[in-house]
Amino acid sequence: MGGIFLQQYPEDLQVCSKSMYEQARDIPCPSNSSYELCSHTCQHTCGADSATCPGRCREGCTCQDGFMLSGDECVPTSHCGCSHHGVYYKEGETFYPTEKEMCQCLSGGTVKCQNTSCPDGRPGKVIDGVFQCPLQVSSTCVATGDHTYVSFDGMAFNITGTCSNILTQTCTGDNATSFTVTIQKEARQKGKVSGIQALSVEVYGVTLTLKQGERADVMVDSISHHLPTILREGQVQVYVHGTGVLLRTDFGLVVHYDLVQHVMVTVPQTYMGRLCGLCGNYNGQRNDDFQLSSGQLAPDATAFGSAWKTTDTPCDDTCPKDECSTCPEEKVAVLQRPNYCGLLTAPEGPFGSCHRMIDPIPYSQSCIHDLCMMGGDTHVLCQNIQSYVTMCQHAGVTVGAWRTPSFCPLTCPANSTYSICTNTCANTCAGNATTCPQTCTEGCQCHQGFVFDGHSCIPEEHCGCFSDEEDYKATCWAWGDPHFRTFNGLDFDFQGTCTYTMAESHGNDPGLVPFRVEAKNDIRGGIQSVSYVSLVNVDVYGQRISFHRNEVGKVRVNGEVTLLPVLLADGKVRVRPSGLRVALETDFGLRVSYDWNWHLLIDLPSSYFRHVRGLCGNFNLKPLNDIPEAG
Fold first, then answer.
1. 185: number of CA atoms within 13 Å, CB side?
2. What angle do CA 312, 162, 227 make, to 5 degrees?
3. For the range 588-592, what are the long-range contacts, defined as Cβ-Cβ under 8 Å and sequence gap of 24 or more?
4. Which of 241, 267, 272, 586 would suit a FRET pair with 604, their CA atoms being 20 to 30 Å apart?
């Protein structure tokens, strides 16, 4: 009876001796604490307001000097956690205040939050403090490699044509948001595979186009926008994700393009039975995926592909036999080995955990076909494996390490490191403006203190402004019989035939890298009043990089002719071909491109606001102030 009395009324027994009470009751205490009969625990608790603590003591465990109670453990005072909206979280703890927000408690009591959602764009739920996505309520269609497609309903088939095709579009007249996804295949060359040259998405009255190899920009109705790009107050978002680019909408459409050969289109379940195109009708049945716009079924894959091509440009519905010959059985046997495409299907390999979720057979067959056509090109092998990895990680599957320094190494830009599971979207100049996918992807992760600006990893303080539309960067250009547009948008003509300063850094800001861009105009056709840009000089990081008219594929570095691409200043300056142009990019956001003829473009991040001068103006957003200065 005495034991029960002691347990029920400890506050009335504070007069009892401590030794008697400890004999009656043995209370275990966490590390770095000890039992006290009269303890003021509240005043030694992380996140507690001592002014609101009760005055009377209680029996309990008291943290030792220099330690505070954090949840259920005593930690050094410097490792106390964070209070967020009245709730305490331990240091390093990840928590979800809402169904669309993920936060982390950092050292020093700082809370960092970002938007989060499930892979299909829908909100998840927080159950017992853990963010969970609902059961699969979406489906994904794939176009990959030279000729392989997998429909929303899971049917794999091959189309060898090189046309522009409608992958999927809404086909019913109900109130579902309409969209169209189109891909443009590359023209086929003998001994080459046909990759995906461009991807277009029509939605909300705009057309967004991503082009092969162009990782930093998206065309919005034929106007180039830097990534990330956000349209219609977040209804459409486009940003770099891993090694590719992700486009997502507020109604659940998600499109991923690796900018080479692999496109994934994910749609929510609400679109079941409402779609048509190469991705099928998404009705849960595979046997009717070859449906034509008339409702009839195509007799084979070739006829099906031909029915869904656009009429933009002439193309081939099939591949000539001399260009797409069948792979000999002996070659197939070799390419099926684990050191080639067989790595995809190896049960104990790095992707074995994914086989139950994503059938590896279509990807293995695509890999064998492409590798056979390309004579065993290792780059093609790596690209095919990467396509399967992308699918697995999109489905939330953890894959094993597969790249090594000697097998498919992924080269990362300065200030970043390869990671098999990273979320590049969460660490960009856009901050929390984008809705990042919950799943990770392999890619290059910026080092501590650096963020991704669409081109490379730069110090966070060098980020430009981010508006509703895009990461703000100003553009100046000169073209033709020199027509100029300044950073502030002033248009003017100037026919001088000297070398002029287009833009140079100006001012005393120590955080800005000095640079200078010059352009030389020459007379053409013997007409004194007509001149064109024939030479571009860029001075940066102690190097002079020059582009000369008609020196296609070449650049001069400090006067020496060099073939592209070129890396300078320990990777801080990159010069590479970009379509029919040459592009110079720096680690601080300066981009200069020239078409080796007459068209010059200069992009500058907003960190240089009011810190430049030259024919491109002073970048203060006041066009009337742009009176060209002599250079």
1. 31
2. 70
3. 588/458, 588/462, 588/512, 588/513, 589/453, 589/455, 589/458, 589/462, 589/464, 589/473, 590/513, 590/515, 590/540, 591/455, 592/517, 592/536, 592/538
4. 241
Q: Which of 13-27, 125-139, 395-409, 564-578 has the lowest mean pLDDT?
A: 13-27
What local confidence, expressed as pLDDT, does residue 321 receive? 65
Which tokens hold the place of 110?
């700082």
Spatial contact of 185 and 145, defined as CB atoms under 8 Å apart: no
Orientation angle between helical segments 361-373 and 378-394, nearest 10 degrees: 160
DSSP structure class, residue 399 = P
The pLDDT value given to residue 113: 87
Does the pTM exceed 0.90?
no
Which sign, positive or negative, has the C-alpha torsion 269, 272, 274, 276?
Answer: positive
Q: Coil, strand, or helix at residue 432?
A: helix
- Token readout for 444 is 């290059």
Report d(CA 215, CA 463) in Å as an integer: 18
Residue 457 amino acid letter: C
pLDDT at 90: 87
Q: What integer is the mean pLDDT of 42-57?
A: 77
Alpha carbons 316 and 305: distance in angstroms, whole number? 11
Q: What is the pLDDT of residues 168-182, one digit of tens each?
A: 999 987 788 999 999
Q: What is the per-residue burial (b if ≥16 Cβ within 10 Å, else e) of 414-426?
A: bbbeebbebbbbb
Nearest one of 583, 489, 586 to 536, comparing CA atoms = 583
Helix (H, G, I), strand (E, B) or coil at 308: coil
Burial class, 36, CB count within 10 angstroms (exposed 0-12 / middle 13-18 / buried 19+): middle
Q: pLDDT band at residue 21, thresholds of 50, 70 and 90?
A: very low
Name residue 614's amino acid. G
C-beta contacts of 41-45 below 8 A and 24+ residues apart: 41/69, 44/68, 44/69, 45/69, 45/70
